[in-house]
Amino acid sequence: MLSGAGARARAGWQPLSLLLLLLLVLPEPGLSCPSPCRCWPDNRTVECSGRGLESVPAGIPGGTRVLDLSRNRLRRLEWPRGSGPTVRRRLEELDLSGNLVSELPGGEGEEEEEEAEDGGAWSGLGQLRRLRLDRNRLRYLSPGALGRLAALESLELGSNPLPALLDLTFRGLRRLGRLEVGGPQLGYLGPRLWEGLPALRLLTVTGGSLPAAPSALSLQPLANLSALRLLGLARVRRLPAGTFGPLAALRLLQLDGWSSLSELEEGSLRGPELLLRLSVTRCNLSSVPYRGLQSQPALRWLDLSHNPIRVIRAGMLRHVTRLEELRLVGAGLLAVQPEAFRGLLYFRLLDVTSNQLRSLPEKAFRSAAGLHSLGLGDNPLACDCRLHWVARRRRRLRFLGPAPACRTPEAHRGLRLDRPPPPGSFLCSRPRIRDKRPQRLSVREGRPVTFRCSADGNPPPDILWLNPRRQRLGAPTPGPFPLSGPALGRSRLLPDGGLEIASVRPQDAGIYRCVARNAGGNDTASATLRVRPLSPQELGVFRPAGRGGVRPGYPFDTQTLLVTTTMGFASFFSVVTVCFSLLFAWSRAKGPIKHNNIQVDFVPHGGGGGGGEGEDAKYNMKMV
Ligand SMILES: *[C@@H]1O[C@H](CO)[C@@H](O)[C@H](O)[C@H]1NC(C)=O
Ligand SMILES: *[C@@H]1O[C@H](CO)[C@@H](O)[C@H](O)[C@H]1NC(C)=O
Ligand SMILES: *[C@@H]1O[C@H](CO)[C@@H](O)[C@H](O)[C@H]1NC(C)=O
Ligand SMILES: *[C@@H]1O[C@H](CO)[C@@H](O)[C@H](O)[C@H]1NC(C)=O
To answer: Which of 58, 65, 611, 613 is deepest in the core (most CB within 10 A)?
Structure first.
């Protein structure tokens, strides 16, 4: 890029020809390019990056606009004698990143010194617009230390071992629009830190040791902020509601590396209502934070990459109807449910690269035709009819990241979805249950029973069992209450598709159905269970308690009930008889009782372990 002066020189002084031009381009005597550096007179740039310098080299041409001293060994900014003021006056960009600077001069009282003092070194930079001091050894920034750099627009102080940022550290930087600060040690932010920065638009804070998110109050002076990045707040567990409330102009919010943050509560993002881009990455969110998203109707881009999110459920994104892009890379995602992006009219980019997805349902989208870009690579994709839509639309899709390729079926392993599919690929075959001869089992009450069911198909079918009342068995218990109905709660699906009922009851008898389902269709087989009830003698003897026993909450069968009651009453009457005889004997000995008020409480604690014994029934007798 030619500077304005250079361009004018060329246009105006054309007739003066080569000689002058040569003079302009050749380094001026005395202001030649410092030997270890490279200079570009065109854009007045001096580049001395990575030269092992321990001090600013002598001979930097006066009028230099950009000075790159990055990746050297400078401990402080010290201008070589003589070249100081002429170099500084027109300097616009100074890059000191990746050095060993450990201290900046104090803020007050040193402005006037112009010599080799640090304080002097940082003055006279009246044109400096961009300063990079990231990746240094700064441990302390005194309030107002940089205040004399009144023209500064961009300041990079990231990756410094600063433990704290005190109030008013950046006072005086009234034109500062962009600030990056912090490091892994940063553990304290002064409550008035952000005052005096009216022009700040972009703020990045890395706070590896901060115990809590910045308070809403401290963010109040940043009403004009449009982008906020809070990085590496690994100790912070929650984001209090309304934290970003004062940031009315915020359009971009990035929370990255909050490895203890496992939820975005409702209201935690309340405030900046026109947030367009939200990125919550490398945190500990285990699901799409739909509650936190409730207050973000304008959101267009969402990135939740590298969170342990296993499923994108239907409806989780219903509050962000304007969403266009979702990125969920490297999250361990196992499934995207149908209808996951249903309400999203403008949805056009999905990046789920590097997950554990076997498929991606076309029905997840309101219309797959609206999808422009898809990242699906590095997933163990099962290439059957469910993914055919991707192969079919491949020419109208832009694939992000590595090309998606099939993991299964074996015959098509490695087949790429962005290439024309060979014949016979992306097919499903309807499940076929292997042995469909009806099973008939007759089992003694209280015994376990196992039905078998196995099926082939592509993709491998899911197997489910229905009991005689057509209720689904073997599914996780839906609530805290025990299930009732044949075999509910006592049954378990076996890994090979079979069904086990731990201890059958008479009411379990009937026809059970095994259903094998996949995207290609379903197949069913049936099994009949007959239950041989226990004889009264068998019921009378001690029956093993535990798994096979009657658990609270199940209906007793009539026999058990009958025996329990009979035995209960028998023992009750015998005890009452004994009591009355005792009383009678006693009263005869003592003479008549005036107020004989006798209360007998009978509390049978039967029910539990196997029912009919009556031994553990308790009798309480109160006499008043
Ligand atoms: C200056 O110009 C050179 C060569 O044209 C280029 O490599 C360099 O990046 C430029 N520097 C800046 C700061 O524009
Ligand atoms: C926001 O910016 C405007 C000008 O763009 C300025 O007048 C105002 O003071 C700023 N607000 C704050 C809180 O800094
Ligand atoms: C992340 O969340 C899981 C539970 O969801 C928890 O066990 C784990 O300790 C959390 N990790 C951190 C770093 O807080
Ligand atoms: C099995 O497929 C038939 C159609 O072929 C369908 O009507 C039925 O609902 C399916 N059953 C299950 C349990 O999916």
So the answer is: 611
Rounded distance between C-alpha atoms, residue 609 and residue 600, angstroms: 26
Between 211 and 272, residue with greater pLDDT:
211
Best mutation site among 515, 522, 526 for ligand 4, i.e. most ligand atoms within 8 A of its Cβ? 522
In a mutational test of the pocket of ligand 3, which residue from 263, 284, 307 has the highest number of ligand atoms less than 8 Å from its CB?
Answer: 284
Mean predicted lDDT score pLDDT of the chain: 82
Cα–Cα distance for residue pair 260/206, rounded to 1 Å: 15
Nearest CA to ligand 2 atom 6: 198
The pLDDT score that the predictor gives to residue 1 is: 39
- pLDDT band of 28, cuts 50, 70, 90: very low
Helix ranges (H only) for 421-517 are none
Ligand 1 and 66: CB distance under 6 A:
yes
> CA-to-CA distance for 4 and 599, rounded, in angstroms?
110
Assess whether the C-beta atom of 240 lies below 6 angstroms from ligand 2. no
CA of 315 to the centre of ligand 3 (A): 25
Q: What average pLDDT does the segment 134-145 reach?
A: 92
CA-proximal residue: ligand 1, atom 7 (nearest): 40
Is domain 430-474+488-532 annotated with CATH 2.60.40.10?
A: yes
Domain ranges across the chain: 430-474+488-532
pTM (global) more than 0.70: yes
Residue 519 is encoded by which pair of tokens?
Answer: 């995207």
How would residue 147 be classed by pLDDT, with cut points 50, 70 and 90? confident
Q: How far is the CA of 197 from the centre of ligand 2 (A)?
A: 9
Residue 100 in contact with residue 136, Cβ under 8 Å? yes
Q: How many CA atoms lie within 13 A of 123 on its CB side?
A: 17
Nearest Cα neighbor of 451 from 525, 517, 516, 521 is 525
Q: Does 286 sit in the ligand 3 pocket, CB within 6 Å?
A: yes
Of 530, 465, 528, the residue nearest 496 (C-alpha): 465
Q: How far apart are CA 532 and CA 238, in angstroms?
A: 58
237 CA closest ligand 3 atom index = 14
Probe residue for ligand 3, chosen from 238, 259, 262 as the CB with the greatest number of ligand atoms within 8 Å: 262
Q: Which of 103, 49, 102 is nearest to 72 (CA)?
A: 49
Query: Which residue in the block uniquely carries the two structure tokens 């799409």?
Result: 288
State if residue 224 touches ligand 2 by the CB under 6 angstroms criterion.
Answer: yes
Evaluated on CA atoms 453, 458, 464, 465, the torsion sign reads: negative
Write the CA distances from 35 to 44, 57, 62, 337, integer angstroms. 16, 8, 15, 64
CA–CA gap between residue 492 and residue 477 (Å, rounded): 11
Label residue 18 exposed, middle or buried (CB < 10 Å: 0-12, 13-18, 19+): exposed
User: What is the position in ligand 4's atom list of the atom closest to the CA of 464?
Assistant: 13
Phi, psi torsion values for 389, nearest 5 degrees: -60, -35
At residue 43, φ and ψ (nearest 5 deg) are -110, 20
